[in-house]
Amino acid sequence: xxxxxxxxxAILGLLGVVFGAALALAxxxxxxxxxPRVEEITGILPNANCGGCGFPGCGGYAEAVVAGKAKPGxxxxxxxxxxxxxxxxxxxxxxxxxxxxxxxxxxxxxxxDRFQYYGLMDCRxxxxxxxxxxxxxxxxxxxxxxxxxxxxxxxAIVMSDKVPVVDVDKCTGCGTCxxxxxxxxxxxxxxxxxxxxxxxxxxxxxxxxxSCERGCITCRxxxxxxxxxxxSIVNDVAVIxxxxxxxxxxxxxxxxxxxxxxxxxRKEDAAAVGAGATGAAEEGR
Length: 285
Prior knowledge:
This protein has helices spanning 2-29, 36-44, 57-66, 79-90, 123-128, 147-151, 176-180, 206-211, 221-225, 250-254, 267-273; strands at 100-104, 157-160, 163-166, 186-190, 195-197, 231-234, 237-240, 260-262. By secondary structure, it is of the alpha+beta class. The protein folds into 2 domains: 36-90, Electron transport complex subunit B, putative Fe-S cluster (3-methyladenine DNA Glycosylase II, Chain A, domain 3, Orthogonal Bundle); 100-273, Alpha-Beta Plaits, CATH 3.30.70. The strands form 4 sheets. Strands 1-4 form a two-stranded antiparallel sheet. A two-stranded antiparallel sheet has the order 2-3. Strands 5-8 form a two-stranded antiparallel ribbon. Strand 2 (157-160) and strand 3 form a beta hairpin.
């Protein structure tokens, strides 16, 4: 009996040695090599996992950067500081990029709703359930139910009188609100290009006047006034070319409806603020 116990223990011990050796060999020869820079870059990222870079989380972005599939400056929440750290790890130089923040291309509801909406308090649901353009007076404008504010991972959007207001100091330009808005009313605005047309409605004439008190009516005054020829009419809405815009402000003065406004610090102010700095939103300045 005693010999059987010793024999069984010896077999178990031998099996333990064999399996341990097998596992050690497997760990050595079957291991998938992982570039140590991935972990290093992941460690300096803000770990917001907002998806603004276009990759599944900060870990996915770090792998893409090391593999050369993404640029070091694609992390909007991290900004210039993180971009420089990533570039240092990779041993490359990174170009300075101008900071971008989200801005709403709509002045919000200015007239009474067409009917009372009792559905789910979510812009995406309301947009799907829209009846003849929805319950707001403008069928192209902001629904004002706060889906963008709920989606923002940084708490940079608050609702004020049915209109989303972006806190420029908190906004990282991740683009989450751009994708969350079912009517695509948010755009990422360069900090040094503070002029914005706050309307996307293609309505014109009487329909435009009836739907909103401040919407674009395609009068073309802004287009004729702009000395840089930076404004054109696309789908019956004024569109500003940020590469041509000199931020002279003449279009803001010429717009009879107040549709074109300064939403960020003007050029002379932005120069002092800098590419990576922040500024307070100046709605309707």
